[in-house]
Amino acid sequence: MTRRLFCILASPFVLMHALKLSAGHLEYSGIQEYETTLFDAARQRQIPVAVYSPQDEGGCGVVIFSHGYGVNKGGDFKKYSHITRRLAQAGYFVISVQHELPTDDLLSMKGDLFKTRLPNWERGVENILFVMGEFKKSKPNTDWKNVSLMGHSNGGDMSMLFAQKHPEMIARAISLDNRRMPLPRMKAPKIRTLRGCDYPADEGVLPSDEDQKEFGIKVAFLKNIKHSEMDDKASEEQSEVINGLLLKFLRD
Questions:
Q1: Whole-prediction pTM value?
Q2: Domain ranges in the chain?
Q3: Which is the most buried residue in 51, 75, 160, 199, by most CB within 10 A?
Q4: For 195, how many CA atoms within 13 A lie in the half-sphere containing its CB?
Q5: Architecture, CATH, for domain 14-251
């Protein structure tokens, strides 16, 4: 069956001027954002997305953001606006993807979590592939040779799996405290990760010092930012640290 794009729910571009957020009263100006829902006919699946971009989208690098697990409540793709809006303000075309639907099975909490959660991550990879394909058609003037994946927690696991399976499609993959999916040991795409201060990753997820040196992988440990403080619960000071490192990773 041919895959087609249907806009189930869409609002027009909204120009953001001095928008104040609950996360530290941060301000963003001169960016646009809108929401829409794509439909993957091959999988009979709706994929809500939020788009954040500069007013002039031509030549923008692309960031695809994947949220952390939200127990299928929905709306999680909008809960990282202190990051997505800041990246748009810095000149990136950002697509934040809602991976969970209320009808989906809940994320496994038992057994070997790498094995039991793998189907969830694989579904996330398929979501990202579909979103990329549709936006390449609708936004051909953005820089699709400069695509970065970014994801928090379970969304970081999805991003790392995508980098392992489709390395030729992206320039870099950045995780915010993913804990289960090992970071791919490869030079391309570039692999980067931010680590919270309260939860350790599973054994083998993070590369050794030798692997970091051999493959150019960068690991940044955050002293005063917890796993749950990377979304819009981040304070203004925490947001400055997170976004500063993410922008550094995107530009290196």
A1: 0.91
A2: 14-251
A3: 160
A4: 17
A5: 3-Layer(aba) Sandwich (3.40)
